[in-house]
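DATA SHEET
Item: assembly model
Revision: 1
Owner: S.N.
Input lines:
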Amino acid sequence: MSIFLKYREWVLAAIIALMVIGISFYAPAFGTLDNATGVLNDTAFLFMMALAQMIVILTRGIDLSVAANLALTGMMTGLFNEVFPDLPAIVYILVALSIGGGLGLINGSLIAFLRIPPIVVTLGTLAIFRGMIVVIGGGSQVNTSDMSATFLGFPKLSLLGLSSVFWIALAVALFAWFFLSMTRSGRGLYAVGGNPIAARYCGISMPFQQLLAYGISGAVAGMSGYLWVARYGVAYVEIASGYELTVIAACVIGGVSIGGGVGTVAGTLLGALFVGVIVNALPVMQVSPFWQMLISGAVILAAVIINARAEGRALKLILPEARRAAAQAKR
Amino acid sequence: MSDTPSPSASRYTVADRAPRKVSTFLLRWESILVMMLAAVIIGNTLKSPYFLDPFNLADATYNFSEKAIMALVMALLILIREIDLSVAAILAVAALAIGFMGEAGYGPAALVLTGLLVGLACGAFNGFLVTRSGVPSIVITIGTMSLYRGIAQVSLGDQALATYPQAFLDLGQTYFINWPPVPLSFFIFLVFAIGFAIFLHGTPTGRRLFAIGSNPVAARFSGIRVDRIRFALFTLSGLLAGLGAVLLTARIGVMRPNIGLGWELDIITMVILGGVAISGGVGTIGGVVLAVFVLGLSTFGLSLMNVPGIVINVLLGLLLIISIAAPIVIRGSTGRR
């Protein structure tokens, strides 16, 4: 079974390929290049957000506040645009990155310095960020008519049929790969998640790694917030509501271990692509979009259970000898 | 022998327990919650003349009783280092079944039974997956949350179910005791709270939960059937979510696929504010009950002041983080982990 683990990503890629082929037989429109780019454009947000979430989960943490951060930063960037219209798009991206990163660092400081469990902190900030949208926006929404041309234009740019959002997601993926495999602090994320005590003895600072992880997670969520608001042309309270669970689901399908220290960029991207293909296939196959949740739930369960079986049950049985003895005694 | 040690002559005294200090008692999480609760009640009474009205208070309990019932078993799950994120989705599936039975014209007893059984079945499925697969329950229940909520969405789409016998609706819409006014859901919560407290703090199985939460491996080696208890608690969680579905549908009289959406986070907030450590092994039912009242009454008080619901969420989120952070900052340590 170790083959499955070693080639885990290949297996997932093969499943996605089979799915795409199967769906294309059923609905030929799905197998076209046009549709493929459509799927990639559509899934771009999930690619970025899942990678950022993976970085947090590597440290044995979890960031439930990403979707709320996305919505709040999107709203704040939208309001910033009302005050300073017609700045170049890069300015809005930088503003969104810093707001999102700042929000992420709030999470990170509470977790790193006060050592409050991540799930508690991000559950709290989820509610706070979401509510702050109403407080800051005065309960109103930012509409397309309130947004400037440069603000709206950027996500609509495209190259080779792929939108700028996708190219940014690709850049995030390359950055994540480089950061996680080539840099000291990137490797440190695996170390603190794999064995915090050993990491401590190696001189890796847990608080620093946590700040880094939640800061990155927040920054990516914030940037996605700007892109999301500009792409869909509206900022309001409910944006991306519940999206954090889709993001975590993509990570889990992609083989990121909730226990920390295990996860790859390729696996996470494939996990996100898997969700993206399903979401996009349903309308093509004329299946009601209401099926999406049920299917992704079934897939998550199947993925994690197959994965657990592949890892073997040795970890599970605490008293295998005793059980075997009991079984023999019965005979 | 002349030097037989007498109790008074001994250099040491052997006490049954450490002496109780006032400071330890005051720094107990439950004491802090009592002070918070007192502050909430006094503050709201001064702020609004409508706060201390028994009928208003009784109606305020409607808004948290179903969640509070589900929080009791969530507290036990978190205590043994597990978590059930699918409770709200189980509630939706159970409410769906109740809705269909209502459309089919069954009586109130059948509706209640359906809700409970469907909840039980969903919970047992969770328990089965968690104990059989060895995958962390947070992952399993994210999966089943999607699955259960998905079942409700696929079956109903954008429709709603709203045919229920009047006797069933009366369960949720009339007072169970007329004076003082006590709704059925709140009454059930009180009874269950007492039951859970006795179970957790007064029975051997309750002690075993603390053992599992402190160290599951050691607990298994000392002969505790860890997996059986896990399975039982997940099943119970499903059953109480089914009960929540019964009470909620009876109260609002309509079932939509988004019923109870996001409740799992509200419920977990109640449990964590109640002082149950997310890392397991620490917590009391009394703390959870107090947290339920702190959250429920502050929500009620704030809405009396016309604060919008989403802003209340901001304040409750702040309350959660500050109340966990403050003792850590004050003590300068990380004792409550």
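QC remark: Chain B touches chain A through 52 residues (CB under 8 Å).
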